[in-house]
Design a protein that fits this description.
Order of helices and strands: HHHHEEEEEEEEEEEE
Radius of gyration: 69 Å
Structural class: alpha+beta
CATH topology of one domain: Jelly Rolls
Number of helices: 4
Helix content: 40-55%
Distance between the termini: 135 Å
Largest sheet: 5 strands, antiparallel
CATH architecture of one domain: Sandwich
Bound molecules: 2-acetamido-2-deoxy-beta-D-glucopyranose
Strand order of the largest sheet: 4-1-12-6-9
Shape: rod-shaped
Length: about 270
């Protein structure tokens, strides 16, 4: 039984008792008012009882416990969140470190490769510099390729069948590949050569030819009256030491096979070497 309830009841009873004395003295009207008051007290009493019951139902300890539990829950969640955050931070840190390591290694690899490439290039440049032909050597090589000649027949000659025509008078003989004693041009180097011959004969038919070794490679026919003349040009691919000369083309024409001096020329030059 609640103390407050009993106290309220006692207070109410005392009040009724104190009021009951004058009521009994003054009669009916007062008795009615007392009754109303009594009812009011009963209502107050009810309300008080209600308050007490409500107080009884209030489980402060359980509420406190719940609050604590909630706090614990929040705390535990905070710890777990802290843990997750710490783990994420650590993961991120690791990842950044790994990425940095990866990039560093890549950069180092690229740097290494580039360094070796640069070294290789430098070596190549050095070797090219070593291999490069000196200006003197180059001039010597060019000198070797300077092959050009012009020679004239002098004095006038009469040829036999197949006889080589010797152009004795030399105008130009760069490289000395033409011999004015044999009339033979000897290729000093393999390459492509150009030859030109002009023949001035007498007042009769004259057939001439150019020979590359044993092969006829160009023909000329001159016929009178007065002085018959002919010219021809040939481009020949020669191997080193191939021989080129001008000769009487067999027995063809009209004897004697006269060749006039000075106007009759033999020229040649190397166009390019192989
Ligand atoms: C050949 O040519 C040289 C130089 O031009 C000359 O001195 C020499 O007399 C010529 N030889 C002959 C046989 O004509």
């Amino acid at each position: 039984m609640d103390v407050k309830f009993s106290l309220a009841t006692v207070v109410a009873l005392i009040c009724i008792f104190l009021l009951a004395v004058p009521v009994s003295v003054h009669g009916g009207k007062t008795k009615k008012r007392l009754k109303a008051l009594e009812q009011q007290f009963a209502t107050i009493n009810e309300a008080l009882a209600e308050v007490v019951r409500f107080q009884q139902t209030l489980d402060v300890a359980s509420i406190h416990k719940q609050i604590e539990e909630n706090a614990e829950y929040i705390d535990s969640n905070k710890a777990s969140l802290d843990k997750i955050f710490a783990s994420l931070t650590s993961d991120l840190t690791n990842e950044v470190a790994e990425t940095k390591k990866y990039i560093d290694s890549k950069v180092s690899t690229i740097h290494g490769a580039m360094t070796s490439d640069i070294l290789n290039l430098q070596q190549k440049i050095n070797s090219y510099q070593e291999d490069s032909v000196s200006e003197t050597d180059l001039n010597r090589l060019l000198q070797k390729k300077k092959i050009a000649f012009t020679a004239r027949v002098t004095p006038s000659v009469t040829l036999q069948s197949g006889q080589t025509l010797v152009f004795r008078n030399i105008q130009t003989n760069d490289g000395n590949a033409y011999s004015n004693t044999t009339g033979v041009f000897t290729a000093p180097t393999s390459g492509t050569y150009v030859f030109f011959v002009h023949i001035l004969g007498g007042n009769r038919a004259l057939e001439m030819k150019m020979m590359k070794n044993e092969e006829s490679v160009m023909l000329m026919y001159a016929n009178g009256p007065g002085h018959g003349a002919d010219s021809n040009m040939v481009i020949l691919q020669l191997t080193k030491d191939d021989k080129v000369k001008v000769a009487k083309h067999g027995p063809w024409g009209t004897q004697p096979f006269y060749v006039h001096h000075m106007w009759t020329t033999f020229s040649g030059f190397m166009l390019y070497s192989n």
